[in-house]
## 1
Amino acid sequence: MSVAKYYSRVVVLHCCAILLLLGSVLSGLRLALSAGRGDFFSVFNAYLPQGGMHGLHLSLGFAWCVLALIFVWHHWHAPARVASSTLAETWNRYLIHFARYLFLSLLILGGALYFGGSAALDGWVLLLHRYLAYSAFVYLIVHAFSQMIYSPWLQVRAILLPKLKVVRQVGWKFWLPVSLAAVLWLGSAWIMPYLTPQLRIANLALDQEIVIDGLANESAWQSAPLHTVKTLNIGANAAETPVTVQGLRQGEVVYFRFSWPDTTPSLQHLPLVKTAQGWRIEQTGLLRNDETQFYEDKFAVMLARAPDAAGAGSMLLGSQPLAGYAANRTGRGYHAAQGALLDVWHWKSVRNHGTKQLDDSHFAAAYPEVPGEIRYTAGYKSDPLQSGGYSENWAWPSNGIVTPKRLPRDPAQLARFQAAKPNDPQLVWGMSWYETLPYSSAADQYPVGTRMPSVLWTTMFEGDRGDVRAMASWHKGVWTLEAVRGIKTESPFDLALNEGLFMWVAVFDHQQTQHSYHLRPLQLHFEGQS
Amino acid sequence: MKHLIFCLALLSGMQANASDRWQKTDAQGRALPVSAGPWSCIRDLNTGLLWENKSDNEGLHFNAATYSWFDATHRLGVEKAGSCSDASMKVSPCDTRDLMVLANQQAWCGVSNWRVPSAKELTSLLLDTGFVGNPRIASGFFPHTGRFPYWTADVRPSNNGKTEALILHFGSGSTQWLGTQHAARLRLVASP
């Protein structure tokens, strides 16, 4: 190989590496920032890209793998060079050696995160990946300065401002594998389903009964295939939460059982406390949609026809990831599925208590902002509701004093909440609407310090929102949720539970919006069905 | 692309205008900031009309209360064929006149000229939120609006010699004539 051709390839490879590094670092920083792990780089929040960063970051990782192979091939075909032992050249040599190990480590860690789950080694892999990525960015700068010892600016300029002739000089033997790699990269979405683990759903005989009670003590559950998904809540506590999933099909309905560990069942939900000035909501982040303390436990299941990472690409990161749409108050992002519909089952330990239902919801293309609404949720909506459900016990949320919407008919109803132990699994902080009356100051004779639930249950969901029957129970540090739904529903906001559908799960450990997640979905496979 | 950017800018402008159009007021009619709440009425800054806000609590402004359509001045319509509660939460049969009288007696939001809106006035509240699960209204300002029919003041004699009034459905956004003996929801309006 001629020296000119060799250096032309060096220029092209460096250009590719710089572009990939910038893309990877910027998208990675957005991922870290949205999880509250941006470190010093949080100051660049306003300048980082927004939107579906998971998919971009992963596809750039795939491109890195291809580029690394091309680098190896290129290195093998390098013309012989005279070894130099000057201090500067020795420094450069060691620096490049370091870079090889650095980028190899990043790729291995990235692969571990993708295939092992973002919770790999309880978050340590993710942490290491993040700090090595910072190192790679520092390396880029040090490497550029180090190259100046050969010819000030000449090499840097050749790479940053490449001449068109290098495209011709590198030759077709170089461009052929690069083009194939590009095609593979673009086709990675097609490859994804083949890399997706299956959720095997066994058949349940029609004469066997599953009671939706959250106990899952039927014998059918003992023999149903069990799958464990490792989820990670990066933002809240970087804790890994393994979720076990099972499915059983009985004719035209499918039962699911989900269970996950939680040492502290959270059955309080933004309680009200009486102060000398009036009632106040107990909260630490409600008004920015990021309550992390006085909030119920929740769990979510997402179903999609596409396997793209992070919820079929529905996680859009940044304070305003969709141009022309409203910002979100957390600054972390929101969900929207442009051009698709994702079925979301959202179970809430307090608000869904007692109705044997969960909140059937969906992610769709971002909806327009409704004037006056205080929280914009982009493509996330609960499915249409005719009647029923629950209500909060205030007319308007505030950091200060609020007027409760209702008070108990019998003040003694509140007695059980006053001496409540934290995380009491038997005490659900809600009141039936029908055991309360509209607020009146005459009836508000409660002493300062009185605590009152803020969840008012009315009746079961009537309408699309009530399509999934579900109930959960907490026992000895484990939540178990049983859910059942027909394969098909009448709702245009539900997806049919067909072969090949993709599923993700998420755990909200007393978090309003921060939840654990995983990248690779499970794919529904009905055993014994053709 | 130019068209797309133009449409986005137009949409953005329309949304901003929609928010700027409404002003919350308390029960005495004092203006409130857009971020404040709760509120009792909503003023349309384009027309000056003041609209009653509804509540999901039982009482005079209960969102699920229903009324038959009745005009006492012209003795048109049917009396007391709906179901509503007064300020003391006593549930009784009622009609559109009852809510008007009580709201005017209270000088709700500082005014005493509450009335049933015309179809043109009520239709001016329609807003396509893009989601069929939402009522067709700026629900951030008009919470607890149901996807149900609401009475207007437009009335006509029906074929059977009785009267019909026009209803506006906030689920479909369509209008329809309905016999005044039927029960529908009601949102009062007051002229400036």
## 2
Amino acid sequence: MTAKEVRELDRVVIRFAGDSGDGMQLTGDRFTAETASFGNDLSTLPNFPAEIRAPAGTLPGVSSFQLHFADHDILTPGDAPDVLVAMNPAALKANLADLPKGATIIADTAEFTSRALKKVGYTSNPLEDGSLASYKVHAVDLTGMTMKALEPFGLSRKEASRSKNMFALGLLSWMYGRSIDGTVTFLQSKFATKAAIRDANISAVKAGWNYGETTEDFAVSYQIKPAPTPPGTYRNITGNTALSYGLVAASRQSSLPLFLGSYPITPASDILHEMSKHKKFGVRTFQAEDEIAGVGAALGASFGGSLGVTTTSGPGVALKSETVGLAVALELPLIIVDVQRGGPSTGLPTKTEQADLLQAMFGRNSEAPTPIVAPASPADCFEMALEAARIAVTYRTPVFLLSDGYLANGSEPWAIPDVETLPTIDPGFATEPNHHSDDSAEFWPYLRDPQTLARPWAIPGTAGLEHRVGGLEKADGTGNVSYDPTNHDYMVRTRQAKVDGVDVPDLEVDDPTGDARLLVLGWGSTYGPIGAGVRRARRAGHSVAQAHLRYLNPLPANTGEILHRYERVLLPEMNLGQLAMLLRARYLIDIIGYNQVRGLPFKAEELADIIMKEDDQL
Amino acid sequence: MTATELGMPGLDGVPTTDVAQTKKEFSSDQEVRWCPGCGDYAVLAAVQGFLPDLGLARENIVFISGIGCAARFPYYMNTYGLHSIHGRAPAIATGLAASRPDLSVWVVTGDGDALSIGGNHLMHALRRNVNMTILLFNNRIYGLTKGQYSPTSEQGKITKSTPMGSLDAPFNPISLALGAEATFVARTIDSDRAHLTSVLHAAAAHRGTSLVEIYQNCNIFNDGAFEILKNRDTREEVLIRLEHGEPVRFGANAEHGIRRNPNTAGLEVCGGDDPAVVVHDAQAPDPSRAFALSRLADPGTLARTPIGIFRQVERPTYGDLMNDQVDQAVATQGPGDLAGLLHGGDTWTVE
């Protein structure tokens, strides 16, 4: 056998698609892990239904995992797949519209039965009727070959066919020169107590690889060289994991035990799962009876000197609003993580959106300001969790951390920071009376730090500082219940001034040529797609500036100056213009919105088009 | 001596003091603003008067409340205190008690706060057996919002919001608590200082969630709701004082007793000398008898109302179990190593 041709590519987008029970997320995760270890830059986009097991073979049951990897720095999971792995007709039908002509389709022929085809409305088999002529189709009996490879293991048909995802993984690994060693190690550990399943899956991966190596059907394999990256130790990380690690780090850096009160909700539950593994760090996780109890318990723990955290998504934030308002009044540290998803109401539980900004900003009764931070990428969730904790603890305030479904489940390589360089957060507990008169020394819970306007945090167990706080308006200084009109006006303005005065870094602008007239602004998870769109526009000869807000309340001090520096500001958002509304009101500047709420991240190409169109008008 | 050795396992881990304390030390400098004649005054005085007996470091005591007249309670206690939002005090207290086993945590709530808007949190706190004492001030009316019927109001109650009578059947807080797997359930009356104090003592001594229902008179909107249980002329005929290990008898001369009804699972009144009079066992693992006792009272007339401790059983507390898991994780895996966590999984190094 002659060696097969190896072609070099600079980037590839692969989408694995199948039934929600086919293990597509695991397949994607494993391919990603091998790709990360290989040193490619990468970005991933899982996409799965809210139903755990929608009826098999139907369009609503299709689950997919898209991976973009390259020999250079990339920012998004890719607009359109170069390769679609379709485990059944539903997976083909649901994803075909996203495929550019000429893309490669690898389809499991065993699943293209007349019954399965009929279920999704195919009247003839697309693998045979010529309708896919403009694609490179590899019709492969993935199931059949998996079963054959697993014959020696004495598994039932059902059990054996379940390993077809590993066969597909092996085949794709061969095609793109990925190792399968890590996957073999992974399977050995995952199925350590189930020898037959373990061996079957390992055999399936190897069989898939060997099939690629030997079959005539796949004449070419591809090579994507590692991307040049700064020195350091890297790992691939999802937003939810990075956020969890950031919270654990915040606990360590503040020397405050972490208490997470949470109620399961997609797409935030994985943070609860992750945090529950870290008890040895003193992390206490409390699965509450509801969203309200989750945040309530977190606030109660904060009162006692813990770093109180609650994790949820938009509908949960709605339920927690009253307690967040209480935290504003109590002026205690609290982190509210909102992994945003499509709404209103239950909306699109597994799809992404960034339409909770105004809810975080204003979704409470009366004047109840809270700081808001938003990570720009999956790995950035680590740093922004630390930042949320810094602000919450320093200023004794609830802080919103706005992630979203795309950040939560998407992944990218992360340069692991040196823990010795992480910032320290000083809780600065009150230990002494702070108000002295001629004959007594008292503790006044609302006597503020003149710099930060933060009130002292005296925790139970501190002798001599016994005090009462509560949701009724408090007198400045003493903290006694007060209905005095002047005091209330003062307290409302002071709480606002405290949040307005939170120290946040300046907004940075990327304007390499210095002559851009158009600024593309963004916040949250749109960083990647906007960055990719800006690069395309620049390659096409446009001078475009980009800036990305990670601090939304307060906004960086130089935000207004930067916005006024450009003739036009374009702001893509996965909502109907929420940040644009805030910026217009604040800076009296017309912002051009570009808005989509499709439950999916923006595509680089569409943003490049709109960026160039706006620039052309200047 | 530890609190456990003193027979107060509920306070184990809470620092004590050898310095004698006074009621005055437990009174804050805030003016008490309940209506003159409100039953809340009696409960406040009883709590402030009894806490010095526990000998706890005052700074390790926390009172948490929700919303309602009773919820102002923490402002009047010279301890740590948190006046929170409607119905949520048990949830907030759960986070505090679970994360701070060195605190004595008290929740002050009312029939509206605990059983209406906060019913879910009450029920789950009881089920989890979080180490705290819940004082449920039951006046069978909404006071702070000026007189609407509450979830314990008798059916047909004429109030501002129910001019033709309320429609819903009331909750029986004792039955509800027993159904929610509570480990300590008691009832007492605001005006009976000695009984109130003895129940509070037992509740504080219990490790787990202690629910104490306190019949409390709202002299503005529901005056005399418990008069039949308080009036010297009537109370002996209607009030049943439960004592662990004692036969359940009542009447001025113990002429009435309680025995099992052989035809139902319930209890019935019999003569005080009936050999079948039941002996009260608050520590019985099976809550059926306690439940049957909770059903004796007539919800309308309050005839046959038991007071005292219905149930007092031991079960591990949520906080102790949670902290055990943390300790166990540290013991078996070693203390957390952040660098090790961040470098877990597949990593690669670029030189």
